[in-house]
Amino acid sequence: MRIEKRWAPTPEEAQGFDTEALRKAFLVENLFRAGEIAIVATHLDRLIVGGAVPDGTPLTLTAAAPTGTPGFLDRREMAVVNIGAAGGVTVGGTRHPLAHRDVIYIGMGAGPVTFDSDEGAAPARFYFVSAPAHTAHPTVAIPQASAKRVDLGTPETSNQRSIFQFVHPAVCKSCQLVFGYTALATGSVWNTMPAHVHDRRSEAYLYFALPEAARVFHFMGEPDETRHLVLKNEEGALSPGWSIHCGAGTANYTFVWAMAGDNVDYTDVDPVAMESLR
């Protein structure tokens, strides 16, 4: 298992970052390598993001030094989405099949988690996010059809999109994790604009279903000190509570969002007026 650690820069520090420093602090890349599990352990509400690509042999997530516990989920919960071909996630001896874009929530203390693919030649690609937990909730496999869907935006504003909420109070109980993804319609490229911040929670993003030559411009920073990251397919961004987070792509795309912090209220945001952005 490959492990990378990230600290939590302050807004004042980030103002002085050049492109390389900004990418080193906030860009998440190289999560999906065949036959490996990779994680990025952050100090943003202790979020851990990771990827697993079982290409014939199952991969088991047992322990990782950043958690400081014998088992990865001893004091944590996690959510997993399959962005590849069909596969399965085994928790507590029970295998849960996950088709493309299906999600599973796994509660604290569930034990080792094993990822597998139905066909090694066409592997599943599992993306997961984990946060500390103090209460155990049941493991729940959630197909896309069972997610809470919210349709927003219009073609005229280039932001027609469908939000799929999986780990959300209306769908599945969790301790502090909120998890889902947003799919943009063909011809739409903008997400989460007008922008917002939420000082009470940190967030992590993964962009996928993006053509190989396309790019997403992920905007971040304080509202009056904005910066951006240029991301390709299956790359992500870490978003501190003090930062805006919105994006525009050169083609439509889907992005996974995951939040952890003081509550599980998806709508707990502090809007930023367009005229105040700089």
Architecture overview:
It is a single chain. The chain is mainly beta. It is built from two helices and 24 strands. The protein has a seven-stranded mixed beta sheet with strand order 1-3-4-11-6-9-12, with no helix packed on it. A seven-stranded antiparallel beta sheet has the order 2-21-18-23-15-14-13. The chain is globular. The N and C termini lie far apart (40 Å).
Topology (SSEs and partners):
Elements: E1 2-6, H1 11-15, H2 19-26, E2 27-28, E3 37-42, E4 48-52, E5 59-61, E6 76-82, E7 87-91, E8 94-98, E9 103-106, E10 113-117, E11 126-132, E12 140-142, E13 148-152, E14 161-167, E15 178-184, E16 190-191, E17 196-197, E18 201-208, E19 216-222, E20 225-231, E21 235-239, E22 246-249, E23 254-261, E24 270-271
Parallel strand pairs: 1-3
Antiparallel strand pairs: 2-21, 3-4, 4-11, 5-10, 6-9, 6-11, 7-8, 7-10, 9-12, 13-14, 14-15, 15-23, 16-22, 17-24, 18-21, 18-23, 19-20, 19-22
